[in-house]
Amino acid sequence: GAEVVFSVDCTKLKDYFLPEERVFDCIYFNFPHCGRKAGIVKNRELLAHFFHSCAEVLTEEGEVHVALCNGQGGTPADQPRREWHNSWQIVAVAAGAGFILSNIHPFKAETIHGYKCTGYRSQDKSFCVEGALNHIFTRSTPLPYFKPMICKTELESQKVSFRVPQVLVDKINRGFLELNSNHPVRTVKEKLTAELSQAFPLQNIDDCPFLLHRGHLNGVCHSRIFWIIPSPEETPSTEEMSNGLANAVLFSHVDFCSDTHKNGWVNAQEGCNVSEQYYLRPSLLPIAQAIIQRGAFLPGTLHVLSGPVFRKCLITPYSMPVFHEMVFTCAVNRGTENSCIEILARNIKTSVHSLQQAVSGFKLNINLHEATSFETSELNDFAAFESQFSKIQYFICVEIDTPGSCEKGSCVGIITHYELGSSELVVVFASLNLDLLTMLICGISDWRMLWTSDARFISQFPGGQLRLFKSFSLYPPSYVHDVSFWVPDGEQFDEVAFHTIAREVSGETVIALQLIDSFQQPETGRKSLCYRLTFQSCDKALSRQEVAEMQL
Fold this sequence. Notes:
The chain is an alpha+beta fold. It has helices at 40-55, 90-95, 184-196, 238-243, 285-293, 337-359, 381-386, 434-442, 455-458, 495-506, 544-551; strands at 24-30, 58-68, 99-106, 133-139, 150-155, 158-163, 202-204, 212-214, 227-228, 256-260, 265-270, 278-280, 302-310, 322-333, 364-370, 394-400, 411-419, 425-433, 479-487, 510-520, 527-535.
């Protein structure tokens, strides 16, 4: 009952089928080859044209199966693995046509009824398929190109509109913690809250709905903050703001202060003091401290705040410019704070254990480490930044099967306390990085995956169930570029700002940014820096050409 078509050019598939027939669910290409001793480069070109051809006739949910001999593909699944330049580089080639490698398994000719491996050097004789692999590709969601976005909010009973920093456009107002969300970050938050409610009277505080704040941040490195400048241009129309889009110029590190127009929207003018500046909240700890200071709490009750926070940071595997923070605060009688910390830590530990055991077989060890046992250089970005807001007593660390050693990326929370003025009360604070905790529980190796728009991520957590995550993009290709530049005379180079530019331009596809050389001209004293950038996407097809354009 099948139709067989002969002499089909695999690089021009659409030419051989009518438009209504160009909707294939699966396209198989077993052991492609240009014939005779074609060489690696020509076979890569063959695959490139083939994948572009597939994109024109494949359904949105379709698959492309390509079987290659052992070593040809150039992925870690090949054993032994060839050097990259000596392989067909199939994942990078497929990325050029918008495909990602979603599965890979051994090719077993004996399981396919009637199949015979022939065609060795264009002859009717078999060739070796021992160790051959079947590569299964699916369509990638396209790389996003976000227009500038305008948000509106109220701050201290005043209407404020602001342009979202470009690096955060796809991460603002995602609603991961809302009631109808199945996102694993929300599930972890709800499970933790339920567990802690067994040990403490618990009250959720809806006191931090606003992302935008105004004022001065004491003790915090200002280069790490997303400063927001209300637009000095004409206030956008309601339609523009409801669409969330407007043609905009982005401003940063300029001192503006507010000036309220007759329509109630805040615009900006230059020349104000720092107390009038706006910024995206970098932590919920100051909000929790403010609640305590104004007496809006019940002694002995555990008050819970949660929401996204924003901070500029260097590009490292555990540094996130946005993540969901969960803060617990409890006022207890002086002398009982250590007991409160012990109970709080024990219940957090029990909660994480129960969550993790339901997800996977490996074991997570949760430990409380005294802050004095750490050097600042040993802390991950989350812990180091939190240390700016308060003197931390303990770090909550997660170790995977290696108790006793706290890895740099494994600090998921902090605990601190301080005396409440002349009162007999002592306030205990605990802060958790929900995103990092979710990654460790569900086996998610890349924080960017939490923010993907690809439905294949959230579909792995139906009804908010926590499961061990299985990546739908295997062995993504990486590309290395260098950039060097002169540092302007007399200026301090802001490395965090440079990393933020790399995040913005690349759409978070730069995964490493390393200073590899510096040079100072003896005669003039001018200084130049050379950085190495590594590009890689965890969820989307990323081609060599797209990376070259980002680098420019």
